Amino acid sequence: MPTRIVAPSLLSADFAHLGAAVQMLNESQAEWIHLDVMDGVFVPNISFGFPIIKAVRALTQKVLDAHLMIEEPDRYLARFAEVGVQYLTVHYEVCPHLHRTLSEIRRLGMKAGVAINPHTPPEVLEYSLQEADLVLVMSVSPGFGGQHYIPHSTRKVHALANMIQSYGNSTLIEVDGGITPSNANMLWEAGANILVAGNAVFGADNPKQAIADILEA
């Protein structure tokens, strides 16, 4: 069976009880923890930075998967490596020298990811897949949790899966935005490997069961 990973987004957790949220994830079937980093410039919201990530790293052995929704990400790549991030994803839309950025992420010892916004066609990544360990398909407009899934995202996942296969790459496909147990199956079937879920996990009566439901959809 192809890789299936659920990556709950800490952006949707109760920040007054962040340690308890991480402990819950430690006890769950989630293999990754997703960290949404926002600067208030690339997206109209600000989230958290290095002190929070460093604190989370100390609480878990799970893979830390950071999604940078920030301008000029190259300025901070080394800092993310220092605080223990393992997968670092930058946006295609803000990286004029994407090859160089992805190569630097890898040089720093992290896996390199590239994200595309809902309006960005997957074909723009055709010549970047060799440098990308992961492609993140944004299935909502980036910046806020709790949005509804954009239906055409499924076609983008399928197109990326075909592109990756045709080039013989092992690049993983991650999808973020509006993920629920009810739409997870079509994304697994389309070729997704990692699904990011925020409200569907932390807003559930039983978050650990919600993770299992998405994983087994």
From TrEMBL:
Active site feature: D36, D176
Pathway: Carbohydrate degradation
Gene Ontology molecular function: any one: D-ribulose-phosphate 3-epimerase activity
Binding residues annotated for a divalent metal cation, in chain numbering: H34, D36, H67, D176
Keyword Zinc applies: yes
Gene: rpe
Residues involved in substrate binding: S9, H67, G143, F144, G145, G146, D176, G177, G178
Gene Ontology CC, one term: cytoplasm
NCBIfam families: PRK05581.1-4, rpe
Phylogenetic classification of the source organism: Bacteria, Pseudomonadati, Bacteroidota
Keyword Kinase appears in the UniProt entry: no
Cofactor(s) recorded in Swiss-Prot or TrEMBL: Mn(2+); Zn(2+); Fe(2+); Co(2+)
UniProt name for this protein: Ribulose-phosphate 3-epimerase
Any one GO BP annotation for this protein: pentose-phosphate shunt
UniProt similarity note: Belongs to the ribulose-phosphate 3-epimerase family.
Pfam families: Ribul_P_3_epim (PF00834)
Residue ranges of coiled coil: none
UniProt entry keywords in alphabetical sequence: Carbohydrate metabolism, Cobalt, Isomerase, Manganese, Metal-binding, Zinc
Co-factor note (free text): Binds 1 divalent metal cation per subunit.
Catalysed reaction equations from the record: D-ribulose 5-phosphate = D-xylulose 5-phosphate
Domain of life: Bacteria
